[in-house]
Amino acid sequence: MDENTINKDQILADMRVVVGDLESMLKATANSADADVRALSERLRDRLSVAKSRLLDAEHAMLERGRQLARTTDDYVHQHPWSAIGAAAGIGLLLGVVISRR
């Protein structure tokens, strides 16, 4: 996994936590008699709905990108099997050398 994927995964996880916290806060203030709190609650509920939708879209986009990458890799390996075997052997050899030096 590259650094961008890790950062995206962390951002999505953080967003899930924020969405959960906002939902809890909205439930706790739902019965407030204060008009300002109710108005803020309503705005937050609307924004939370938009944030949830965007979060789901981002997750779906990441999953689709992963599927595309897997399909591309699979196609390449089927079209160039000996190149793929050679690359895998080379990477295995390099990893073996690096690990044996430690």
Short recap of the structure:
The chain crosses the membrane at residues 81-99. The protein has 102 residues and is mostly helical.
Which features characterize this protein?
3 helices; elongated; ribosome binding; 102 residues; mainly alpha
Chart the SSEs and their pairings.
Elements: H1 3-28, H2 35-79, H3 81-101
Helix pairs in contact: 1-2, 2-3
Main location: membrane
Keywords: Cell inner membrane, Cell membrane, Membrane, Transmembrane, Transmembrane helix
Pfam families: DUF883, DUF883_C
Structural features, described:
With 102 residues, the chain is mainly alpha-helical. It has one domain (3-101). The protein has helices spanning 3-28, 35-79, 81-101. It is elongated, with a radius of gyration of 23 Å.
The structural domain count equals: 1
Gross morphology is: elongated
Radius of gyration: 23 Å
Task: Please give the alpha-carbon distance between the first and last residues.
Answer: 23 Å
